Sequence to fold (493 residues):
Amino acid sequence: MASMGATAQEGPNGSLETTLPEGDAVSTSPTHPLGVLPLGNKFFFKGTEARTFCGTFQRFPEEMLSLFLEYLDQESLRMLGYTCRYLYAFAYDDALWKSLFLEANTGRFEGKWLGSWRSTVLKLPAGQKSNLDCSNVFSDVLHRPFVCRYVDLEQFASNIPPRSQIQRFKNISYEEFAENLTGQPFVLTECIQEWPAYMSWNLEEILRRYGDVDFRAEAVDWPFSTYYDYMNNTKDESPLYLFDKKFAEKMGITVGHEQGAAYWSPDCFGPDLFDALGGDRPARRWLIIGPEGSGSTFHKDPNATSAWNAVLSGRKYWIMFPPSAAVPGVFVSKDGGEVTSPLSIAEWLLQFHEEARQLPECIEGICHAGEILHVPSGWWHLVVNLEAGIALTQNFVPKSPSCGHLSNVLSFLKDKPDQVTGFRSDIEDPYGLFVDRLRETHPEVLDKALEILEKRNALKKRTWSEAVGESKDEPSGGGFSFGFGDDDDEEIP
Ligand SMILES: O=C(O)CCC(=O)C(=O)O
Ligand SMILES: [Fe+2]
Fold:
């Protein structure tokens, strides 16, 4: 981490300044708004540390102090902050105010974004800045998010080794996709140029036409005009990301090949087998808008679906790994249900990018405006916006001769019902429903996918029997079946 390698020097006005070792991962960033410095700087400091004056709180390690403050309400947090400089710096931490905002504003937010969560919660006049100098506060807890906020993202997106460069094609046919590419990430560079959405949407145009429309951004619903103010004036380390699945209805647009549609799924991706579910299908499309530095931490897409992600404006850096890879810094529960990546995007990039790039399975690339990227089912991906921008994404179940992707989805719906997402709550058995509908619409495809599943299960049982030294004829008793944690280990693309 940069903050750890930082050293202190006397600045021109006698104050301490942070200088970073040459080649460090951080750009020349502005100083922390309160002047807080990384913890290590205290060893070079000759004056009296602010921490000395915070009474009993001195006994708390800084991580614990910050956790404690999460339990305070607005008024207590504000008042505690006025007791001394050290606590002021901690109580000023905008992540705490973001939580307070989210607790207090569960419905539609009618107020104005005032430049920080603290100012917005306390309704402080925009532009009012604290002039309390906290340059004798030394804290990695407070300084690290600030360093991450100003990290130069371009360094991670450049010098991609040729062997891990994502494949790029101008355009491809459905046959090429279905036969060879359903299991490969790739970028298409000339495929969405005809979309009216690509030709006419930009942030200002969306503001002009849909400024009053509420969009979902993580846990909040904000009119686009408020989100626009936010994205143009936020210092959040992990900016709130607009991710809305009802955008088409809200914007009054149509999607598909009919006259007047704003965009359509490129022909090369072929049919989506979830269409067999008609109105009972799970959520499939999202509008994504965010500032530079926003993005998605490592995940696999829902229900073992594949996806495409089209950049209408801005630029996205993608780093991807195949389903069975162990991604550095990402911890997965045994059933694959819980992904723990306790780090923000910038923290992950700073700590693990170099190591991840060494792995032979690593795939990386930049998707520019006008390009579309394919995410095969089960692939891990982290995505960061190198510039503010707009994207459209759609998840689907590709139809391919091998039927491997359909079998992945069927096995996910059947074996991981607690991880299935996006279906209406009244649909109790998504697996059963999907099988019934496929039997009506695509019987041969269904049979082939079920056959693959059977073979896969038999292979698992055999592997288990061999592992515990049983012969094939003497399976382990009691109908016990062994799960390998993640079915994707044996993904058949
Ligand atoms: O554009 C992005 O941030 C990526 C979105 C994504 O991975 C998803 O929708 O699953
Ligand atoms: Fe995704």
Observations:
- The CA atoms of residues 465 and 476 lie 7 Å apart.
